[in-house]
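Box 3.1. Reading complex inputs
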Amino acid sequence: MTLDSSRSLLIRLFTLAFLVLVPPTAILSLVALSDFEQGMIPELDRKAAAVGRDLAAQVERAVGYGIPIDRLVGMDEFFSPVLEANPEIRYLAVTDERGRVLFLKGAEREALEPHYRSADFDLARDGRKASIADYLDLALPVAEGGRRVGQVHVGFDAGYVRGRLMGILYDVGVVAAVSLIVAFEILLFVVFFNVTGPMKAVGHILDQVRRGDFSRVAAVPSQDEVGRFVRALTAALRSVDDLYRRLMAYIEEVKTAHFDKGVVERVGEVEARVNFLYRFATAGSPKPMHERRATDIRLPLFLFVFAEELSRSFMPLYVGELMRPIPGLTPELITAIPIAVFMACIALATPYGGRVAERLGSRRVFLMGMVPALLGYVMTGLAHSVYDLVLWRAATGVGYALVTMACQRYISKAVSSEARTQGLGVFIGAVLTASVCGTAMGGVVAERFGYQSTFLVSAALVMLSGWMVYRLLSGTAEESGDLREPSRGELAGLLRNWRFSFLVLFAAIPSKMALAGFLFFLAPLHLAAAGFELGDIARTVMLYPIAVVLLSPVVARLADRTGWRAGLVAVGGIVGGLGLVAPALLPGIWPVAVGIVALGVSHGLSASPQLSMVPDVCWIECRNIGQTNVLAFVRLLERLGSVAGPLLAAAFVPVWGLSGAIVALGAIVLGMAAVFAVVSGAYGSGPHISAEEVA
Amino acid sequence: MIRRLLLALAVVLAAAPAVAQDTPKRPYRIYMALYRGWEEAAQGFKDYFTNQNIPVELIVRDAGQDREKIKGFAAEAKALKVDLVFTWGTSVTQEMLGPFDAPDPARHITDIPAVFAIVSQPVGAKVVPNLESSGRNITGTSYLVPVETQLNLVQSYRPFTRLGIVYNPLEKNSLVAVEELKAQGRSMGFTLTAAPVDVVDGKPAPASIPAKVAEVKAAGVDYLYIPPDTFLNVNRDILTGAALEQGIPTFAAAENPVLTSKAMFGGVYRYYTVGQLTAYKAEQILVHGVKPADIPIDAPKRLSIIINMPVVRALGFYPPMNLLGVSEVIDGGEVRP
Amino acid sequence: MFWTLSRKVSAALAAILLSTMVLTALFGYHKFHDLMSAQVGSRYSFVVFTIKKNVEDRLSLGLALRQLRQMQDIVEREKVGDANILGIEIYDAKGEILFNTDRGGIGASVAPEWLEPLKGATNHPFALRDEDNLVVGLPLVNTLGKVEGAVVLRYPAAYLENELGDLLAKLAAQWSVVLAVFAVIGVVGALVLFRPVGVKLRAMETALGKVLAEGGEVVPDPGSADPFDARFAEFAAKTREAIDHIKGATDEVERLDRLA
């Protein structure tokens, strides 16, 4: 067992979590499903009886007028509306007194007639129920002048109930999958926080001691086995330190008190020898070593992003529900405004968040960001007009910017010793898994408990995440970074670099435009307009982060290996644009799903190459004003796309309709991507400095 | 407490004269100008108010098919200061309400709201400029089923490719019907076999009807269409009897051949229903204060389909279930829903 | 009791298991409830629809709604056929109840909100809630296209619970058993997984104590490929060495001190 590397332990734990979570959910779902099915059948019987009685009465009336039962006319048209209005009813039939099928719609004559022929139809008034193959058949008598002349049959199929109940499995599946992922996140956190992290710290201590350095001890406050071990270790180190202190005090005493110069000299030699061989803390005792770990912030970040993503798939629908007409604005524009404002607030607050985090430290900025975010969610849930909704979304946007900047800074500081890409992986991993889970869960929760409650769930998650940061992250002082503020002139100079401005204008901005305009705005509206329920909308929107999650790591490796970054960015842009144009080529609603997947593929392909291209195309500027600043500037510029996307989409809807607006947005994205594709050929492979500072 | 009592008293005292004048149950006074006596439309009009519990006082005048008599109606209605005027038929309506473009306030009813019924061509007769709005103080109902609707009904009983008609060449209504059927035949894809009855001494001869029916039967028609024609209405027993003998299903555009003779089925707006609808419009004006010009002129929403079951049985030509479900069935002289 | 690693992990697993099971049960049951209510609602809508047809056919003969005396028998027969129907009422456009399976209720007025649905589309059933009853209804329309009133059917809101009580109790019991069994599996699993960690840490601790107290050295498990063991052995040796060295130095200083 390897203690400071968690891989094998985590794999076993994940297996355990899977075994504990999935089988009970599966077992109970199946048991419940069959019970539910049994529970619904009596109700179906009653429905069949109600429908059958009505039909039998009408046939009886016709027969009563002297129409022979075998010469009834227009039975197909007579049966059709009943079958259409009652999907659980599979067929309707009329048979004569000997069980010969006279009229039938919805099933094959051959399947039924043998049963009817052999059945005894001397029925009571409330009919006879029989099971024929997959059908349940209710036969009701038709009488004329006190004599039975035939039967009306209502057949329904138990499979229908099963099919409808299967819908339950979607919800259960989502909850189970999300639980599993959350369980993984929590276990990851528990193991990193309690085992791997402390053991890594222990490893550092061991290495220091091996080099003769006794100046530090590991700080582990926990009460578990690891804590106990660390305390034993610390006790050992302290006892060494103690001996050393006593020796030094003794030496000091000898040096000051002894009259013999020779002895003092010899003692001084001993002192020098010990201090040469070993290093001890200069202060009175060994210093506890606080180690920052990027993984510590992962769970709080996950929860925070989860909270925001809950409302992802239905935000435009929620706005629509609150909407009152505002003169001069189309309803679509009003719907788009809260989304655009949210994006704008993130864009504007992000540079500020970066500076504040630099000054006050990640923990405090994280906690600072919780306040507007929490307030934002609670009040968004309680909003009663679009006006206050915009205000609360703006607050949430500011909070979101502060928290994400705090996390990024925390990670970038924590991993200064480790590989930086790994640290970024923690950040992106948390955001993406939270995005998948949050979107899916949000739809299910909103469908069941309503929009308001979902926002309250978001608020609760934000509180939980804040509590974790407050309790678990150490508030130790952080060395202040040397972030230099770039001047306006320098940033303007950056824009004059045509490679840089083309990359931003024709790759970064359209990609955000498509994301915010299509995925966050048009797609939910369109799916809702097509009659999708919230849960299904969420599951469709979720396809985007899933595609990104699946593709990103592969592409990142590919891009690093081949160096073909501009090409991937161009291809990604074109795939996304084509996906959005899909509704123009294909009928129905499913092109929206195609568009969502294409957008996921597009961003999976282009997001990370796009980021790593920046240092390529402007390495001089990166050197002059710092890569962090350049990247922050890219972020700011691309968010222009996030703001413009929904507004543009909203402007298109009244002209071309929802589907048309998607196509129009797609055409713009495609056009810009095409421009980039053409221009990217001229990029060449400029001199490259390693993408060192990505945060 | 005392203050409130005093206040209540004051209100009562102040309202007293008004209360006396405006008795809550004062019936609305309606002047009903009829042309052919008290029939179904008038009955429907009256029953509607009874059913809806709306008190009305009906002042009924019948012209007895005499145009001269109508002339005094307008003046009388004005003198009686009625709340509303009901006019029956084109003649009465034209005489009392005048043309929409030049009503004469001296001769015609202009200040009192009016509703008309049983006017076959409200626009053609210049009673109203169009059916959406009269543009003046009147509204009304139409009662003729459009030929296309009738033919769709026939189609829904059983699709057909040949339609026969026996008609009176001297009656304008019949000639119009023949023309319309021909036009519909072109668009709906059926051929029309039209047989005019013989004219003897300038009068249509009832005796020639059976031969004419045989003639269309020989042409292989699927249905015989009976137009709303006075001559055929009078001789309906001969016509429908002949058709039944020849085994031709008959469709009647008027209710009498089905209700009181041997036509197989018909699609009409019952006069009774039209009367009710007219009363409904009167209610809108009197009770709910809607301006007559804001009430469009239309027909009842539901066509009355009447099926003559003994004839159906004799022909062995049964109606489809759905049609049967929405029809009134006459069986043994009785109407059953 | 203190929070050992296995306890922390079991607690986390149990909490996640509980919330997963509660959520899935909640969502599953709600969805089933929806489906079932829709089914019951659609059946009663159908019953109401047949009554509506019946009434409207009679209305088209020109009869007034309040004159349709046979309707009283028809609604009573319909109620007798189904024990779950609490009542069927037909009221006119002003809200006066004309026919009612509860004859005592004839002539009374319905709540004003029951007149609201009469203003909308006339072919769609409407649903209302009246205290503990669910109500489905359809407007009645005459040949003139005028809404004459409505027919409504009421059935208990607890209908499903009454019908399905046993089923749900059984499911709840099964649910608890499965939850308990898998919670135990989680606890045992965590115990098994973290036992070696505890054992190993304790072994290292003992070894360290021994080295420091008695001397000797920590011998890394030769079977372990873990570099940590070697590092730990080195650490123990170095610590021991430092202790020895410092003690030696102390002795030396003492000796020098006494020399004088």
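In summary: Chain A is about 75% helix and 5% strand.
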